[in-house]
Amino acid sequence: MESPPTGKWKHSLLYLGSIFLILHLLHNLVAHKLLLGNDTVRVKRHPDLPLRFRSDGTFKILQVADMHFGNGMMSRCRDVLESEFEYCSDLNTTRFLKRMLEAEKPDFIAFTGDNIFGPSTADAAESLLEAFGPALESGIPWAAVLGNHDQESTMNRQELMSFISLLDYSVSQINPAAEDPITSVKGGMMTGIDGFGNYNLEVYGAPGSHLMNSSVLNLFFLDSGDRAFIQGVRTYGWIKESQLHWLRSISQGFQGQKWDSEQSADALPPATSPSLAFFHIPIPEIRQLYYKKIVGQFQEGVACSSVNSGVLQTLVSIGDVKAVFIGHDHANDFCGNLDGIWFCYGGGFGYHGYGKAGWPRRARVILAELGKGDKAWMGVETIKTWKRLDDEKLSKVDEQVLWAHQRAR
Ligand SMILES: *[C@@H]1O[C@H](CO)[C@@H](O)[C@H](O)[C@H]1NC(C)=O
Ligand SMILES: *[C@@H]1O[C@H](CO)[C@@H](O)[C@H](O)[C@H]1NC(C)=O
């Protein structure tokens, strides 16, 4: 009889043990991956809604104009200095977005179109995921409208807006919910409105304040279209009458809102809460700003539609929109005032979009601040804006007040 080979036995145990360990690790890793994969595909992550001011009485928006995202690392930068060209791609756009989120810690991100640049995009869905990536990871609620280049690859405008509205933390909508008093259709989407990506979002008052359940700031998003032919001549899209009609009906709804008369005067919001609007293509009147005092730079012609559909008149007549944020012309980054309403360019953000070599890519920040009542926060008191450049220090430039509530005291 042989004595038991203890050495061999110990080795076998060790061997079996390590196989178990490896299997266990593999299982955990793979299962984890699969679960994560499922999660991102099937279950949209929602931000806390409604949007609301912080308890310090502020609400900060980051405007990202014209990311022009292509295929990521393979899409080279345009209009950068010779020395910057070699190591520059869409990844620099992603890096800039991450830096902006880190530096400004916005409460909301507004992407104002040409988020992706169709002609350089092999797969629109992949490009959108990568372009909005930092927003999806941040957990910050965000919304987008389309520009004139987004639909130039594998998705049409409707598909793009549906996809965008289903991404994590997106509060984008394809078109307004139907509660049109004229057609009195309830539920679902309002039909007969031109474009995709017309909607509004309400921002509620500070937690714990009298206005915590009321909208004190409204954000309008509009689809300014892409291209069009007018009598055989190529031009850009424009905001149509159906969209302006919708804008008027929403605005009228706000003006009809009744505030609880039991509340003290301090707790009341201004007669109508201010609104901001976001869309891509400038309106023709912005050309007039060349001859007026502006904040920022006017460095290229305004590439708008040859059609003037009366957006400015509509905004003036409804009265609640105090400032409009646009993109499209990457080398323009100014704010100028037309008939009491500010029109501000975001300035080109993305590196694959055209720009001006040596003139840093940039982003706009919008800060709304509540007025301080005797006891608690009231409605919006001021709306300010500034920009940051994608330089070493993310230089902050051109800070200005866009609107201040005139309180009757
Ligand atoms: C692009 O990113 C790379 C890598 O982070 C960096 O070295 C380079 O300076 C960036 N280029 C520009 C123009 O910002
Ligand atoms: C706001 O709504 C919440 C939840 O319905 C309620 O508990 C709170 O008292 C309301 N506050 C005000 C100021 O209306």
From TrEMBL:
Subcellular location: Secreted
Segments passing through the bilayer: 12-36
Pfam families: Metallophos (PF00149)
Cofactor: Zn(2+)
Any one GO MF annotation of this record: hydrolase activity, acting on ester bonds
Domain Calcineurin-like phosphoesterase: 59-331
InterPro entries, per database record: Calcineurin-like_PHP (IPR004843), Metallo-depent_PP-like (IPR029052), PAP14/16/28/29 (IPR011230)
Coiled-coil positions: none
SUPFAM superfamilies: Metallo-dependent phosphatases
CDD domains per UniProt: MPP_Dcr2
Keywords per UniProt: Glycoprotein, Iron, Membrane, Metal-binding, Secreted, Signal, Transmembrane, Transmembrane helix, Zinc
Cell membrane in keyword set: no
One Gene Ontology cellular component: cytoplasm
Stored Gene3D superfamilies: 3.60.21.10
Subunit structure: Homodimer.
Family: Belongs to the metallophosphoesterase superfamily. Purple acid phosphatase family.
Protein name in the entry: Calcineurin-like phosphoesterase domain-containing protein
Organism whose genome encodes this protein: Carpinus fangiana
